[in-house]
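Model it.
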Amino acid sequence: MGTDRALGFMNEMLWNALIIAGPVLIATLVVGLLISVLQVATQIQEITLSYVPKTLAAVFALIALGPWMVARLTDFARSLYLLIPTLAQ
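Modeled.
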């Protein structure tokens, strides 16, 4: 296997990781931003206030998008396993 092919697999893996993790990260980012705006508006300076809403947002995003995430990850892994016989050439 050449370096160009290995780098192509690495590039594909990184893009898949970004696409799979992106929705959960965006959901927690939006919730964290909303909680921060609420804290500034009400002058509540409690650091731990944002942990529970961000955790709930991450859990709901994982429940809603979990099957899609697993399917995408499984397709990527399956494509890599199917490429194994061609790597010896």
